[in-house]
Amino acid sequence: MNITKKEMQALNQHLQQILTPKRYQHSLGVAQTAKELAIHYGCDENQAYLAGLVHDYAKNMKKSELIAIAERENLMTDPIEKELPEVLHAVVGAWLLPRETPVRDPDILQAVARHTLGDLHMSLLDKILFVADIIEPNRQTPHLEEERNMAFQNLDQAILRSLESTIRYCLEIGRLLHPRSILLRNDYIRKLKP
Fold first, then answer.
1. What are 151-177's pLDDT values in tens digits?
2. Which is nearest to 158 in space by CA: 26, 51, 40, 63?
3. Using CB atoms within 10 A of its CB, is residue 6 exposed (0-12), middle (13-18) or buried (19+)?
4. How confident is the model at residue 143 (pLDDT cuts 50, 70, 90)?
5. What is the pLDDT of residue 151?
6. Handedness of CA 106, 111, 113, 119 (dihedral sign)
7. Residue 184 pLDDT > 70, yes or no?
8. pLDDT value for 194
9. Within a 10 A sphere around the Cβ of 124, how many other Cβ atoms?
């Protein structure tokens, strides 16, 4: 990961142009939280910070644009993603970053691609970004402090809790569930069984 200070300044300016102010603040919160988790778990803190900063790179794109890029570049993993195009911002962002910014680190790009739906084979950086996105301080969720404490005690337990919370929310509002959320939840239940 070799990004100069000048490139980092330009990247920050670019992010402020393509993201809403609220989304940019969220990205800064995720970057800082990812850095804190990386220090705690012995992961590269600069990598984690940069992954957090750029994780929502494609978040403000139109759904039709996300679908078009995902189809053209063969980024879709399940047909349901056409009906849930908002989840595509992760893989589309990871695809766009090396083409539009100096971010080319494959570990960062993988973490960005996996930060929304996760993956059965997540690296430590993947897990850190996945959790940081949920527990960053700008989120203001009812159980934020409890979730933050859990994240610093057991990253896998924090992932499971996040998955179950997302599944519960989707069920409550009648939203489609991505099959990977269920597969991942089951996988983490097995991993965490005593």
1. 999 999 999 999 998 899 899 999 999
2. 40
3. exposed
4. confident
5. 96
6. positive
7. yes
8. 78
9. 17
- Other C-beta atoms closer than 10 Å to the C-beta of 165 total 14
What is the token pair recorded at 169? Answer: 């929310």
H or E stretch including 58?
A: none
When pLDDT is averaged across residues 77-105 and rounded to a whole number, the result is: 97
Q: Which amino acid is present at 51?
A: A
Task: List, as one string, the DSSP characters of 82-150.
Answer: GT-GGGGHHHHHHHHHHHHSS---HHHHHHHHHTTT--TT--HHHHHHHHHHHH-GGG--TTHHHHHHH
Q: CA–CA separation, 56 vs 176, rounded Å?
A: 21
Q: Could you tell me the two tokens for 52?
A: 């957090």
User: Which residue has 């195009």 as its token pair?
Assistant: 85
Q: How many CA atoms lie within 13 A of 22 on its CB side?
A: 4
Q: Hey, what domains does the chain have and what are their CATH numbers?
A: 5-142 (1.10.3210.10)
Cβ contacts of residue 27 below 8 Å, gap of 6+? 15, 19, 52, 53, 54, 55, 56
The token duo for 59 is 């978040």
| pLDDT exceeds cutoff 80 at 141 | no
**Are residues 161 and 176 in contact, defined by beta-carbon separation less than 8 angstroms?**
no
- C-alpha 102/C-alpha 57 separation (Å) is 13
